[in-house]
Amino acid sequence: MDNLKDALREAGLSENEAGTYLVLLRLGSATASEITQKTNIHRINIYDILLRLQEKGLVSFALVGKKKTYEATEPKRLLDIIKEKKRVVEEALPVLNAQKVLAKAPQEAIILKDKAGIKNIFIEMTKSKTPICLFASGWGFKQAFPEYYNVWHQRLKENKKTLFTVISSKFLGQDRELPNIYKIRYLPSQFVFPSTTAVFEDKVFIAMWSKQPIGILIRGKEISESYKQYFNLLWKTSKS
Question: Could you tell me the fold of the domain covering 2-75?
Answer without folding.
Answer: Arc Repressor Mutant, subunit A (1.10.10)
